[in-house]
Amino acid sequence: MNILVVGANGQIGKHLVKLIQENGDQARAFIRKQEQADYFKDLGAEVTVANLEDEVDTIAEAAEGVDAVVFTAGSGGSTGKDKTLMIDLDGAVKTIQAAEKANVKRFVMISSFDTSREAIQSAPESFAPYVVAKHYADEWLIDTDLDYTIIHPGLLTNEPGTNQVNLGADVERGEVPREDIAKVIYTSLKNDTTIGKSFRAVGGETPIEEAVQSVNS
């Protein structure tokens, strides 16, 4: 399987590219700066340098020939509302459109833990734009004909992965290592039962393969 990882230079993205390569599949790292390329080339990954603020056609070129697209990009906590709009919403939608244009059916979206209307209304003012962006990006994806999976991770940490999670539509908030989210993504790509599913992911006691296989939404 050839997998385009959008946001590959992020912390989840790096874990995911490494996991893909270690398991005999092929990652294509979508990165923004040429100086980021060596890390991924050393792993054996393909590299494409582009920007989510580019045109859809540019992103579609990066997706040509892959079997799946994973969107794990984000504007980051230090940017303003403008970049949240341009990356977390418009960048996500353009990536969805690019997948359609490149005839890539499989799409995995890394969202926010709760993107409901209630979450938007109750979010702190500084965080609400991010929740809004994720809400509408998720809705756009659901309304397509793509074979999507939407993963809503809990509070992300840099602790070593445990290979154990709790997945489901209504799990309570909790922490989860980024390394484990990368494995949830990869395992979801290998499991067609996750197509059309949207679920939360936090640390738990169920092995990832088992949790993914039995996830409900």
Automatic annotation (TrEMBL):
Entries under InterPro entries matching the protein: NAD(P)-bd_dom (IPR016040), NAD(P)-bd_dom_sf (IPR036291)
Signal sequence bounds: none
Domain NAD(P)-binding, residue spans: 7-191
Xref: Gene3D superfamilies: NAD(P)-binding Rossmann-like Domain (3.40.50.720)
SUPFAM superfamilies: NAD(P)-binding Rossmann-fold domains
Pfam family, one: NAD_binding_10
Record-given protein name: SDR family oxidoreductase
Organism of this sequence: Oceanobacillus locisalsi
Organism placement in taxonomy: Bacteria, Bacillati, Bacillota, Bacilli, Bacillales
